[in-house]
Design goal:
86 residues, 1 helix
């Protein structure tokens, strides 16, 4: 199998861990296109989806070879970790 492009939307939520609040990723959503992923980001932006923030990301993946390309961040909104923290 050859490398394919994967596009996902990742929501982020604040969770209480003891006395500390931490920002955690929610379940990623596989998207059919960049536009689909960007619609998820817009849903958070306009308040139709309850989450602290979200990111749309695409990357090239070759699962058979176990190779994953560098992620390309398409858009984000709200509270998300810095790109170098991922």
């Amino acid at each position: 199998m050859s490398a394919t492009e994967r596009i996902v939307f990742v929501p982020f939520v604040w969770r209480q861990r003891g006395k500390v609040k931490v920002l955690e990723p929610g379940a990623p959503v596989a998207c059919r296109s960049q536009e689909d992923a960007l619609r998820w980001v817009d849903k958070i932006r306009i308040g139709r989806l309850t989450a602290a923030g979200g990111q749309a990301v695409k990357m090239t993946v070759d699962e058979d070879a176990g190779e994953y390309g560098e992620p390309v961040f398409l858009d984000s909104t709200g509270d998300v970790p810095a790109q170098n923290d991922l």
